[in-house]
């Protein structure tokens, strides 16, 4: 099996991926790279996973040291306003772990070399359906109201989430992409990799809420 690296090995997707992966591959084949290695639970290190320190801003020498002897690298992009297809994040991590495991075990048999793998939910969700689903889960009426980008970005909670109105305005372009149908895409790939139908978005929302209430 090839040596596998995951960077950054923290955050939602990175943690989910290595948690699934370490259940299936020899742990000493896995290197977890993060800017705060202390965030990685000690149990994984005790089981043999290697931990190294690096950030996106590391200089080339530091990155070379962090990635030394790694033959398969799962490089996660910085969170940005990219397309989002309503996939449960833990299922993305599980599917990613399966892809890494398959490639690391037998690169010649891997069918996705130099190919894009698009993992989506089971059906497109309109904003109206999304809001209805959130309202049902909360047990109260939730409404959606269209506002200008400037009005959206000036809201205290939006500015608080993004840190500045300028960043919030940049994120607001995602709504135009949604309007243009860029997120209304469904593929069977996630189901095929997982070997089961992915969890529906409304189910995920209900579970998230019940976990928060517990
Ligand atoms: N298409 C989809 O449906 C979908 C779903 C989920 C995620 N994603 C994409 O996957 C990516 C990760 O998302 P996420 O949900 O895992 O985000 P997240 O939970 O916010 O995690 C962000 C990660 O980035 C790391 N990070 C931030 N700045 C860094 C830096 N300067 N150097 C090194 N590491 C840095 C964080 O590390 P620290 O712990 O050190 O802060 C953390 O591990 C994003 O691009 C997101 O858009 C896509």
UniProtKB/TrEMBL annotation:
Protein name according to UniProt: NAD(P)-binding domain-containing protein
InterPro entries reported for this sequence: NAD(P)-bd_dom_sf (IPR036291), NmrA-type_oxidoreductase (IPR052718)
SUPFAM superfamilies per the UniProt record, alphabetical: NAD(P)-binding Rossmann-fold domains
């Amino acid at each position: 099996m090839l040596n596998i690296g995951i960077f950054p090995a923290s955050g939602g997707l990175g943690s989910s991926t290595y948690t699934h992966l370490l259940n299936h591959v020899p742990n000493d084949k896995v290197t977890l790279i993060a800017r705060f290695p202390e965030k990685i639970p000690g149990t994984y290190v005790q089981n043999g996973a290697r931990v190294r320190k690096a950030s996106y801003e590391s200089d080339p020498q530091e990155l070379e040291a962090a990635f030394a002897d790694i033959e398969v690298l799962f490089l996660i992009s910085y969170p940005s306003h990219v397309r989002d297809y309503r996939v449960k994040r833990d299922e993305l991590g599980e599917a990613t772990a399966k892809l890494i495991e398959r490639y690391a075990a037998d690169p010649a048999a891997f069918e996705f070399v130099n190919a894009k793998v698009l993992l989506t939910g089971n059906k497109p969700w309109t904003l109206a359906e999304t809001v209805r689903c959130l309202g049902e889960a909360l047990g109260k009426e939730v409404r959606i109201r269209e506002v200008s980008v400037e009005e959206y970005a000036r809201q205290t909670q939006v500015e608080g989430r993004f840190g500045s109105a300028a960043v919030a305005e940049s994120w607001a372009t995602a709504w135009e992409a949604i309007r243009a149908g860029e997120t209304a895409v469904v593929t069977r790939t996630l189901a095929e990799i997982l070997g089961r139908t992915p969890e529906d978005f409304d189910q995920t929302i209900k579970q998230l809420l019940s976990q928060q209430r517990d």
